[in-house]
């Protein structure tokens, strides 16, 4: 008995040592705060762990030169808040209009300090539950069949306080600097510590390792004071306007390209950094050589025995010595805090800086562990905007909706409309939806057909990578086919070697819409939900498997897809062909005539006119329709015979007012006519 009581006491103490929450969020950066906002609005039990004393600690240091490259377009000429988010790359999603980034900065490219203030206000004004000065140093699993995912996540902070949660949301971003080790790498300064005072580089010769925005940002800062700058990387420069990827080199930082191409001493070189070696001479100058020469030198001869490339090739590009070498190679995810039981593995190839995750943003190794924000960019790396605020604010919302369905039985939000509203619903979304626009080819609107295509259910911004799992992930059924609406660039328009300014780069005719190059809506039609096998075998350059039918809405210079002939009419005819139905809208007079001449009325007449719904008739409306050629100009004298003009207006108004006739008499007349 004593042993049993003692064991029970130990279990109670052990349980008390863990502070429990349903959801644990690691990191109070933009994605962590965005996740917390949705959890709080849903009334869920959560906590955010932040190692710093304030949210957004990454932006307190980076970018080093304090100029963000995310645009802050304060004016668009429109008042639609959803549309305006297409051009606001810094705001997080919330119901509070005070928390729009344009209220924090007037600059098109804002200062990073404005982002720090914005994130502090976002956390405080919304009263998000953030536990500051808490660095999670270890994460492991505890198996338990009663847990949501078959296990709990056990977290330990720097003070050895333990926490337990059912679902873990990792929003730490990528903050560990990428470092390449080679002989002489100890002479290299890191982007994270190098001086940002241009005067410290006056009259110096500088070599920069790397070719991303941080490298060009550093070069831009010292361009006017150095002797010259050389930049070395293993890949060619990628311009964001050519690749249509916002993570590539932006125009705000590309001054060195001018000085290189206009022969003003600066230059770009390609080479594998791991093959390099740096040698420091007696004067403190840094010489570039190859690892091969260093490995074969006579170690007893000192520095003078080292063979430099210019000893064999006297016009070697980097033969001039450098005063400083700066490493600007970006960042990677911190895997060190995760126990092997979580199986958090790095990706492969150019995605190795990110953890491996599914298209649902859930870890491939552990159920219930989701990666948010920049660290989730492996899903759309070099394709879309998932590694940036204007992209992951939407993918974070998608993850929240997946969790709501999985753990709380709340289906993915949807709206049911009559089929007559199908064209209008699509046109409205492609013209204003920000999630589709920013996360092109990654998030899609899904239209589920219902009731023999007499109605449809509309789901917004669902991850297309898990389309085959739609019924399980959303709690919605797709028994009668579906449409998938996404945004795409042209197939061969984006790339580092593409000329995106060639003369006939745009398409204007609807019949050539499939050749559109710029971002435009694409509608996929499937008679059945694609299977897992079809998703695996899809073409690597396609966001979705081969559909039963596909329609491109022709690109538009103003991104305004409302032209009746170029945009709406081709879309409506495509939808009609897929559904084998008539989606046109009709005036009451046309529906009245159809009731006498057709056994089956168009959906608009069945769902509107025959249910005593529609526009109230008036002489002004009738005259407008006649002048537009939409109605025949029937005169009431054909029916009124010899009635006096005084009674004409009253009879006309009465006819317009009483134009709707009950369903049964109409059907009776139709049957009589058929007989």
TrEMBL record:
Its cofactor is FAD. GO terms for biological process: ERAD pathway. The keyword Oxidoreductase applies. GO terms for molecular function: flavin adenine dinucleotide binding; monooxygenase activity. This is FAD-dependent oxidoreductase domain-containing protein 2. GO terms for cellular component: endoplasmic reticulum lumen. Belongs to the FOXRED2 family. The lineage of its organism: Eukaryota, Metazoa, Chordata, Craniata, Vertebrata. Probable flavoprotein which may function in endoplasmic reticulum associated degradation (ERAD). May bind non-native proteins in the endoplasmic reticulum and target them to the ubiquitination machinery for subsequent degradation. It comes from Ciccaba nigrolineata.
């Amino acid at each position: 008995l004593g042993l049993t009581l003692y064991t029970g006491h130990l279990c109670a103490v052990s349980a008390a040592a863990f502070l429990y929450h349903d959801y644990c969020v690691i990191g109070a950066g933009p994605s962590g705060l965005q996740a917390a906002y949705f959890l709080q609005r849903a009334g869920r039990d959560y906590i955010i762990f932040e190692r710093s004393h304030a949210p957004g600690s990454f932006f307190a240091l980076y970018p080093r030169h304090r100029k963000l490259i995310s645009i802050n377009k304060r004016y668009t000429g429109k008042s639609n808040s959803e549309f305006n988010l297409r051009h606001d790359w810094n705001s997080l999603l919330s119901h509070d209009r005070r928390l729009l980034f344009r209220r924090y900065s007037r600059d098109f490219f804002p200062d990073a300090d404005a982002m720090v203030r914005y994130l502090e206000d976002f956390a405080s004004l919304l009263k998000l539950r953030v536990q500051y000065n808490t660095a999670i140093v270890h994460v492991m699993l505890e198996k338990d069949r009663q847990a949501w995912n078959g296990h709990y996540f056990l977290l330990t902070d720097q003070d050895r306080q333990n926490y337990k949660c059912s679902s873990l949301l990792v929003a730490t971003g990528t903050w560990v600097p990428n470092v390449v080790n080679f002989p002489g790498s100890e002479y290299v300064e890191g982007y994270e510590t190098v001086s940002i005072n241009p005067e410290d580089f006056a009259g110096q010769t500088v070599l920069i390792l790397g070719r991303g925005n941080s490298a060009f940002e550093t070069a831009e800062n010292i361009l006017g004071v150095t002797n010259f700058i050389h930049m070395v990387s293993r890949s060619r420069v990628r311009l964001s306007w050519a690749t249509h990827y916002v993570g590539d080199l932006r125009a705000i930082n590309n001054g060195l390209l001018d000085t290189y191409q206009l022969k003003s001493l600066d230059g770009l070189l390609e080479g594998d950094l791991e093959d390099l070696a740096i040698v420091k001479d007696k004067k403190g100058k840094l010489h570039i050589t190859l690892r091969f020469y260093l490995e074969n030198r006579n170690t007893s001869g000192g520095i003078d025995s080292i063979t430099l490339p210019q000893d064999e090739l006297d016009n070697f590009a980097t033969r001039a010595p450098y005063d400083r070498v700066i490493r600007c190679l970006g960042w990677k995810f911190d895997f060190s805090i995760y126990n092997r039981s979580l199986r958090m593995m790095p990706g492969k190839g150019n995605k190795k800086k990110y953890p491996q995750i599914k298209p649902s943003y859930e870890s491939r190794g552990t159920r219930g562990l989701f990666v948010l924000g920049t660290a989730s960019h492996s899903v759309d790396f070099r394709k879309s905007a998932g590694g940036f605020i204007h992209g992951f604010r939407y993918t974070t919302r998608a993850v929240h909706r997946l969790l709501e369905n999985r753990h709380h039985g709340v289906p993915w939000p949807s709206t049911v409309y009559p089929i007559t509203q199908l064209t209008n619903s699509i046109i409205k979304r492609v013209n204003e939806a920000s999630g589709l626009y920013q996360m092109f080819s990654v998030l899609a609107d899904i239209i589920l057909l219902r009731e023999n295509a007499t109605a449809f259910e509309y789901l917004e911004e669902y991850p297309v990578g898990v389309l085959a799992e739609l019924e399980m992930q959303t709690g919605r059924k797709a028994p009668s086919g579906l449409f998938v609406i996404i945004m795409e660039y042209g197939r061969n328009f984006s790339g580092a070697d593409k000329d995106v300014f060639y003369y006939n780069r745009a398409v204007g005719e609807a019949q050539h819409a499939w050749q559109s190059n710029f971002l435009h809506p694409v509608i996929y039609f499937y008679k059945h939900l694609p299977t897992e096998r079809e998703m695996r075998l899809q073409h690597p350059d396609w966001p979705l498997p081969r559909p039963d039918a596909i329609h491109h809405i022709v690109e538009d210079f103003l991104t305004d897809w409302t032209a009746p002939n170029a945009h709406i009419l081709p879309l409506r005819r495509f939808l009609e062909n897929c559904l084998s139905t008539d989606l046109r809208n009709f005036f009451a007079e046309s529906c009245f005539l159809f009731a006498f001449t057709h056994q089956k009325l168009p959906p608009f007449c069945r769902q509107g006119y025959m249910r005593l719904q529609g526009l109230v008739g008036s002489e002004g409306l009738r005259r407008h329709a006649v002048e537009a050629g939409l109605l025949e100009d029937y005169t009431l004298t054909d029916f009124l015979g010899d009635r006096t003009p005084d009674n004409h207006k009253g009879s006309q108004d009465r006819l317009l007012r009483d134009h709707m006739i009950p369903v049964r008499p109409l059907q009776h007349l139709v049957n009589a006519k058929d007989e």
